[in-house]
Each structure stands twice: as C-alpha cells, then as structure tokens.
C-alpha cells in the first residue's frame, strides 16, 4: 500500500477514540483528503435524541466544506467491524453531493480487510443537483 494511504488509514483509525458514542458504543472514524493533500478527521457524534446523531463521514465532509474546501481526492472510513464498514444511506447521498462519481472511498474494519469502492458504486443512479 502506498505510504500516503497508510497514513490516511492511521488518521481514520486514530479518530475512533474521539467518537462520541455513549448510546451505540459503535465508534467510526473518517479521514477526508483534499486534492491538495490536506486531511480532515471525522467521528460519529451521537445525541440523546438518537436521530440527531451525525456519522463520521458527514462530520469530516462538513468540517472540510465549512473551511471552504471543495476539491476532494479520497475518503477513508474506519470501523471496529469485522468486515469493512458500510456507510449509511445519508452519508452516501452527501458523498454524491460533494464528490465526483469516480472518487475512491476506502472502507476498513478491524481485521485488516480493506474494501475499495467509488462514490458511484456506493450510490448508483444517485439524485444530484443536475436532476433538479
Ligand atoms: O458508516 C457509518 C455507519 C454508522 N455510523 C454511526 C452512526 C451511529 O453513531 C453509529 C451506529 O449506527 O455508527 C457512522 O458514523 N458511519
Ligand atoms: Zn452515515
């Protein structure tokens, strides 16, 4: 694996311990990489009103967007799952909003198994601004 990608993986996994998950005890970490190589970490942040919880992927995306970033190269998502973690539907839709269909998304669990997908593979035939 390329050195940069190893580092992104470590950044996503390091985020796991910052997740705020008092209800699910299911931490998720993310590392979003811009085309210029800057990284944004994200974690899931839960709420006593469960539906207000925010996933790690969207936390990383919203952090970057609110800092003015628009051009992204890669997203890495890490879970403590036996299989590579599977992003939820809401996050897939937000990915489709901000990422190109061919952008790579790396999914990892805690057994070292890595799944490489693209945004389009995660959400085929997505609804976007071009449909409006
Ligand atoms: O890809 C995923 C899947 C789930 N979660 C969060 C949402 C919730 O806090 C917890 C359990 O669903 O995991 C993420 O952050 N990312
Ligand atoms: Zn999600």
From TrEMBL:
- What Pfam families does its record include? dCMP_cyt_deam_1
Reaction catalyzed: 2'-deoxycytidine + H2O + H(+) = 2'-deoxyuridine + NH4(+); cytidine + H2O + H(+) = uridine + NH4(+)
One cellular-component annotation, GO? cytosol
Q: Which PROSITE patterns match?
A: CYT_DCMP_DEAMINASES_1 (PS00903), CYT_DCMP_DEAMINASES_2 (PS51747)
For this protein, the record's CDD domains field holds: cytidine_deaminase
Domain CMP/dCMP-type deaminase intervals: 3-130
- Please list the residues that make up the active site: 57 (proton donor)
Report the cofactors.
Zn(2+)
The EC number(s) given in the record are: 3.5.4.5
InterPro entries registered for this protein in UniProt: APOBEC/CMP_deaminase_Zn-bd (IPR016192), CMP_dCMP_dom (IPR002125), Cyt/Deoxycyt_deaminase (IPR050202), Cyt_deam_tetra (IPR006262), Cytidine_deaminase-like (IPR016193)
GO MF annotation: an example: cytidine deaminase activity
Q: Which GO terms describe its biological process?
A: nucleobase-containing small molecule metabolic process; pyrimidine-containing compound metabolic process
Q: What's its job?
A: This enzyme scavenges exogenous and endogenous cytidine and 2'-deoxycytidine for UMP synthesis.
Family label: Belongs to the cytidine and deoxycytidylate deaminase family.
Q: What is the recorded name of this protein?
A: Cytidine deaminase
Q: Which organism is it from?
A: Tetragenococcus koreensis
From the UniProt record, report the name of the gene that encodes this protein.
Answer: cdd
């Amino acid at each position: 694996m390329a050195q940069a990608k190893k580092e992104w993986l470590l950044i996503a996994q390091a985020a796991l311990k910052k997740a705020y998950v008092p209800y699910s005890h299911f931490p998720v970490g993310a590392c979003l990489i811009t085309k210029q190589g800057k990284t944004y970490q994200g974690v899931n942040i839960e709420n006593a009103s469960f539906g207000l919880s925010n996933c790690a992927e969207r936390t990383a995306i919203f952090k970057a967007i609110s800092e003015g970033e628009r051009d992204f190269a890669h997203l890495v998502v890490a879970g403590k799952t036996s299989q590579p973690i599977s992003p939820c539907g809401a996050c897939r839709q937000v990915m489709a909003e901000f990422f190109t269909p061919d952008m790579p998304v790396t999914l990892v669990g805690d057994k070292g198994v890595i799944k490489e997908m693209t945004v389009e593979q995660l959400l085929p035939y997505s609804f976007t601004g071009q449909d409006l």
